[in-house]
Design a protein that fits this description.
5-stranded parallel beta sheet; globular; FAD/NAD(P)-binding domain; alpha/beta; single chain; 7-stranded mixed beta sheet
């Protein structure tokens, strides 16, 4: 029987970061990652394999950082966990003993039984599986008409990448807007307009009744009777946590099917942790159990586990996800952090919101400038920043991270207003009209005005 100090099941983002953080924190301990895949894809880069990258080999996570630290890697599938004896068993009937176990089994695409024809040839999901992705790449070479069912991040990014390759792409979304669960309406509408301007057909508020065809897909029939011709259909209707192994091993799941964990990412079983898409998550603001699956959240959880494997620290806990999302369509970027305005109102927060649009460079005659719109959602009584939505050029990628840091540290708009910033004509908006600070200023004006009424 093999033995190791720390056994990690799963070799994607959360498993990798757990191993790196843990090995750095506890260098005398032996770490072993067991994963099913020989090669691990960068999860967020998968849509870009179909366009900008064009090859899955350009979207691989290197094993070098793990090997350089002395972390061992084993390609196998763990099929059972005996938490009393602290032994895992693989599909090849090999046993691995452990002191600490981290479950980082990730997630898999959802398949719905509400749509007929999902078993037809050329109907695909988008898993984190290199072999499967390579088969899709081969099969879609001659396809021209592509329908994507689902208007979340994977759906819209995949649609834009396939369109770059000259494909005729249609997105069908059941909800009133694309990205309806994560963006406020004005930003979702902007996403839809941007896709439409690029030549992608967008159909929102539409339910799919059936995927049609004899043996291979030929079209998609909507519930209103409309038929969309299709050579290929992608199901992008979300992901489900890979928790079957944990469940059958007796580890407790929550009602949504995620592994229950505390703020140290500990399960109900001694010395067993869970991180990433398979683990339960709470919203940082509302404290409610939520289901978004983000690599950034997974890595934050993994660092928490890596630091607390052998010595718990009250200052090294994971206090909930801020849900920082971002995406790019063409050269327009969209991002959000914290809770949206509609979520805040649904939760009965007393809020003030304000939006400011400025430029991402200065002065105004510089080439390549783009508008940068910042919307802040703020608690009216305390001024604490609860959420933000930002739209603009590539510079908003880091701006949303700064905003997320402000939310995580419960900063107020007053403190944000007096934040010292570094600016440069080619890199940022002007110090006199920095969009994030001007949005804070607009919120404060609203709060003062409402206080006088």
């Amino acid at each position: 029987m093999k033995k190791t100090d720390v056994l990690i099941i799963g070799g994607s983002a959360s498993g990798i970061v757990t191993a790196i953080t843990g090995k750095t924190q506890y260098p005398d301990k032996e770490f072993l990652i067991v994963r099913k895949e020989k090669h691990v894809l960068v999860p967020c880069g998968i849509p870009y394999i179909f366009g900008s990258l064009g090859d899955s080999n350009l979207n691989l996570i290197s094993d070098d950082p793990l090997k350089n630290l002395g972390v061992k890697i084993m390609v196998a599938e763990v099929v059972s966990i005996d938490y009393t004896k602290k032994i895992c068993t693989t599909a090849a009937d090999e046993e691995i003993g452990f002191e600490k176990l981290v479950i980082a089994t990730g997630s898999s695409p959802r398949i719905t039984d509400k749509i007929k024809g999902t078993d037809l040839e050329n109907v695909f999901t988008v898993p984190k599986n290199k072999v499967y992705i390579d088969k899709i790449l081969e099969k879609i070479q001659t396809a021209q008409k592509i329908v994507i069912i689902g208007g979340g991040f994977i759906g819209i990014e995949l649609s834009d990448e396939l369109h770059k390759k000259g494909k005729e792409v249609t997105i069908v979304e059941l909800l009133p807007h694309l990205l309806d669960t994560v963006f406020d309406e004005e930003m979702s509408v902007k996403v839809e307009q941007t896709l439409a301007e690029r030549g992608i057909q967008v159909k929102t508020g539409m339910a799919v009744d059936e995927i049609t065809g004899e043996s291979s897909v030929s079209g998609v029939t909507l519930q209103n009777g409309e038929i969309i011709p299709a050579d290929v259909v992608f199901l992008c209707i979300g992901y489900k946590p890979n928790t079957e192994l944990a469940h059958k091993s007796g580890i407790v799941l929550n009602t949504s099917g995620f592994i229950k964990v505390d703020e140290y990412m500990r399960t109900d079983k001694q010395d067993i942790f869970a991180v990433g898409d398979c683990a339960e998550n709470r919203d940082f603001i509302t404290r409610k159990i939520i289901t978004p699956m983000l690599a950034s959240t997974a890595c934050a959880e993994a660092r928490t586990v890596g630091l607390n494997l052998y010595k718990l620290s009250t200052v090294k806990t994971f206090n909930g996800t801020i849900s920082i999302f971002s995406t790019v369509i063409g050269d327009t970027c969209f991002a959000v952090a914290g809770i949206t305005e509609k979520s805040a109102l649904k939760e009965d927060f007393d809020i003030v919101t304000a939006t400011f649009t400025g430029m991402d460079k200065h002065p105004g005659k510089l080439p390549g400038m783009q508008a940068q719109t910042v919307k802040l959602i703020v608690s009216k009584d305390s001024g604490v920043i609860l959420g933000a939505g930002i739209c603009g050029g590539a510079s908003i990628g880091e701006l949303i991270n700064v905003t997320g840091l402000a939310i995580q540290n419960r900063m107020t708009v007053n403190s944000l207003l007096t934040t010292q910033i570094g600016t440069h004509p080619l890199l940022t908006g002007p110090p006199t009209a920095y969009p994030l600070i001007k949005a804070s200023e607009a919120v404060i004006k609203k709060i003062r005005k409402q206080a006088k009424l």
